[in-house]
Amino acid sequence: MTSSTVMNYDIENDDSFTQPVGRWSVLYYGSGHMLNDITAACWFTYLLLFLTDIGLSPRGAAAVMLSGQIADGFATIFIGELIDRFGHFKIWHGAGSVLVAVSFSSVFGGCMPCRILSTSTLKVETISYCVFAAIFNVGWAATQVAHMSMVNCITLNSTSRVVLTSCRNAFTMVANLSLYAIAFIVFSVSTAKTHADLENQYRWIAYSSIFIGCCFVGIFLSRTEEPRLKMGLRGNSHARISWAYWFKKILYYQVALVYMLTRLVVNVSQAYLAFYVINDLRMGQSAKALVPAIIYICSFIVSILLQEMAWTGQRLKAYYSAGGVLWVFCGAGILILPMNMSAFMLLE
């Protein structure tokens, strides 16, 4: 019997890996994605609005967002492969968190290369924001992949794995609501009379989000141990499935297409909602935080109710289709909503 097989046998028979994970350990783990969640909520809700407000063209703002998404797509694949090969989850998580904090503050903190080069041309600003957007999404991907992949390496207990994932999702809710609470306070307390005031509003939101997120990252890194289960799983006798295997499965494309279209709807709606309530409906500045918060709270309540149901294949398809139809009708209602009826936006 080889040493790796012995190690794998010992770990799989170690009670510490089959027993339920403690409550505090679950909370410490769940807090690790707080920085990613709160900055992502700010990113998709306010980035385009911020960039256009400070003078970038709509095309330039779109290029900044696109550069970040492209970097995220490639980084997720490569970082996932590197973590799978070499492990060291906490190192990847910590490094990614540093990139997220630095690049996020650089985007909302103004054009750093412009100050260094003593120039403020539109081209330099756009390139600068594109670079920092790409760095932000690379760091975001590293933190996300490292944090998510830790679950299966922390414990062999299937119930604890579900609890860890649920706690992570709960902190996502906390992060989103915290962001919108901060934004609501900033937009309500301060009035943007000048261009500088407008930039300061977004900087307060961004810096407050980074501070809160970094506090939770510190708790995660200091209180969560590096998973030891990864070492044993490398000696597992099961053959590793090639990445090309999934491209031969029709179900892979079906799930990917449904998820991609759903995320597309969510991200586009989140990115342009602030534009709509301010520029089209002429609502108050606080509506940029209040409307997204109400939408998020309602979706969270519905998701809790749906989790209590017994799901079958037919019921899943029926509810998914009903949700899509409801979204289309509500979206159409929002688009034709007159300016003098903007209060109904909160109901839709």
TrEMBL record:
Transmembrane segments: 26-49, 61-79, 91-114, 126-150, 170-192, 204-221, 250-277, 289-306, 318-337
GO cellular component, one term: membrane
Family label: Belongs to the major facilitator superfamily.
Pfam families: MFS_2
Molecular-function GO terms, alphabetical: symporter activity
Protein name: Major facilitator superfamily associated domain-containing protein
Keyword annotations of the record: Membrane, Transmembrane, Transmembrane helix
Organism (species): Citrus sinensis
PANTHER family named among the record's database cross-references: MAJOR FACILITATOR SUPERFAMILY DOMAIN-CONTAINING PROTEIN, MAJOR FACILITATOR SUPERFAMILY DOMAIN-CONTAINING PROTEIN 12
